[in-house]
Amino acid sequence: MGNKKIAVLIDSENTPHSKLNLIIEELSSFGQIIVKRAYGDFSAEQLKNWKQPLNELAIQAKQQFAYTSGKNSTDSLMIIDAMDLLYSQRFDAFALISSDSDFTSLATRLRESEIHVIGVGKAMTPTSFKNACDDFVAIENLSADVELEEVQPNSNQVAERELWRLMHQAWQTYRDETGWVKLGEVGKYLKRLKPDFDPRNYGLKKLSDFFDKYPTRYRIRNTKRSGMEFQLITKASKHK
User: Fold this and answer.
1) Over the stretch 38-78, which tens digit does the pLDDT of each residue have?
2) Domain HTH OST-type: where (predicted)?
3) Which residue from 64, 114, 118, 213 has the fewest beta carbons nearer than 10 Å?
4) Is 172 inside a domain boundary?
């Protein structure tokens, strides 16, 4: 995952500038960031605090004055730039930083060209945009010092039940004849199933921490060839 050449396009009007550093750090785990551009009317009052983080992070500001009051003219510029960058054939992945569903079509178009699309936005980002991405990262999960027990509403019982259901579904799908499943395959499966899947949404730092919550339900083992594997503990398997 970490060797992609990435173009990062930021919808400044729908992104908190205070999270820019953490967003760039998160995206760096996917590969090498080649282009970093932020779009907006930086002469407007609401974007007055963007200058410093843009300079510090070497993000190119793409100024777009609003043609009409109440209309977001920056979306069009960001989409046009994205297509220009796509046609350059220089990039393996695009990161679209926005909580706006208007970029759903752009994400879909990029994926049709076999480009990996990473979305970053607020947890309340419309599902249409989330599902148009290969990966979606919730901004609320990005923190220099993540206090997982304070993540809301992700640490509630509803989220725990959802994760338990997803893991059981993955186990049923990928188990071998002896009931063992490779955790790496499960992680990829969950990403395909839910592009916004992130262990931090469920109060975990990493997916393997799930088994600490259910030590009597799953057994785990580590192999040199496949890494961590897990098996559902059934009445039959308890005696093996």
Assistant:
1) 999 998 898 999 999 999 999 999 998 876 554 467 888 99
2) 159-236
3) 114
4) yes
